[in-house]
Amino acid sequence: MKIKSKRRRKLIVSVPGKSASQRAAKGATAAANRRSPRRSSGRPAVTRRHGSRKTGRWQRNGTLSVIISARNEQKTLLPLLKQVSRLQPMEIIVVLNGCIDNSFRQARLSKEAMIIHLPDSAGHDVGRAIGAKLSRGDILLFLDGDMVIPAPQLAPFPAAVDKGVDVALNDLNSLLPPFRLSDDVTRSKMFLNLALGRGDLGVSSMTAVPHALSRHALEKIGFQELMVPPKAQALSILGGLRVEQVGTVDVIKHNRLRRTNIGTGNAVEQLITGDHAEALHEVLSRRDPGSLVPEEVFWEKRRQMAIWRNGL
Amino acid sequence: MKPKRTSARRQLRPASKARRRTARPVQQAAAIPPVNHPEPYVSVIIPAMNEERTIRGVIAEARGVHSRCEVIVIVNGSADRTAEMASSSGARVISYEQPLGHDAGRSVGAEAAMGEVLLFLDGDFVIPASKLRPFVRAVNEGADIALNGYSGPVRQAMPHPVVLSKHALNLLLGRPDLKGSSMTAVPHALSRRALAVLGSGLLSRPPLAHAAAVTTDLRVQAVHTVEVGKLNSVRRKAGGSDPLQQQIVEDHLEAVSLLLERRGHRAGFGDGSRRREIVR
After folding, report:
1. Could you tell me how far CA B53 lies from the centroid of its own chain?
2. Are the Cβ atoms of A307 and B168 closer than 8 angstroms?
3. Which CATH class is domain A2-20+54-309?
4. Whether the complex's predicted ipTM surpasses the cut of 0.90
């Protein structure tokens, strides 16, 4: 790993691998064509404008590290970085994951961003783990490069962590369709929370951005585990961390459609189902084998339940 | 002239021709004798606990699924006349003074069954024979486990925990097409082969049996939808929460545990292009 430092806060970390130019140029044009013209600005409407310049509103005690993972997001990256800098973070870490477009040049236009360039794709959510490892702040805010979220909508996440929450999640429950229409990912997330005894969290998950962590949470979970977000969520709840839903940012409507994330049973859905299986494996393996009820006790309990339900 | 309002055209019948008034001759169904067949093809298994109001109707409809049929009623923990009524309807009655516990009657019934197809019902609501026959037919045509396609109430965004558990288990089993179908729900039918593979004991723990079945080469299908949710009687709940509900979620986690044991810690799903080794 080479580290070239240009300014004190501006780093370029390059991981050896195939260079971007070696990739087929076809993929790049296809990616550009898939982009819908509606989202060309890539920016949801800002509803509250007043007072956003008053940075005093977002004063914190702890320092903030923002970690952005991006994959070919040349259009949204710079506006997103602009919004993020309004939060006055101590550092912004942009992890470029196998980018074959202009993302790198766009990110370099930001004066604050520290750029980690992975020429080969490291896969889903690995960028988060790398970014978390390099971060130094007390509060870690995780974002994706594909969506520009206005700073006022981002602010509640670090603010909650500053006030003592360990894991601040995005509350997507109000945006859900009826269960019969929901996708596999939604169902997996709900079931994991139910299994963790946190059915109240509904669909809220570390799989979704934005979410924020305290440094304490990061140390408790372990930065490596962040690359399987449901497992990280399971570890947080099992570890007794304060996991709460702190705000709602509609990331469903603005999610960029890629070849791999549309249609039922798509590759991303399969991967995320596997991630949830891994998380449930963690939950189940943590159970004390000594706590397993013996067969007789098990059936006695069922007997009592049958009697009780029968109204006897 | 304004044509006379008639349904003739829709029926492809000349308007001049009179509608057939006489009903089609209905073949009189041979009266089903209220006894079990000595060499049954279908065994209907009905656990019952204080179901004297419904048991006769359940047995009568069960007899209609096949000409060679035996009905086995597992009466347990009943203080009423369920057992007498079942035997007067010609069913084979297996009685236990004490309650066997939730779903335990299914194992007892499966042990006693002689048929090639095992159809599982509940004693507390009557399902017409016409809605039961598709389950037997599916097994006859090669399915090993024919499930009810009913997925429970799914109109709200936040589902009932049990409904969620069933959907999630199927998802993790790599069978999202089954939606919320599960061996937890009746009616469902098993082939003799399925019983041999699973063993009768496992049938008392339906989510576990379901996971065991899907992870083997047994053919599991959702074949027909019977809306049992509407038929279920409203049961007692403790302060809004149902202890059985917690138990069922727990049972599903046990099923997940079996799945992970058989297919590895990611349940057989891939890791995509994730390169874990680069994070150290």
Report:
1. 21
2. no
3. alpha beta
4. no
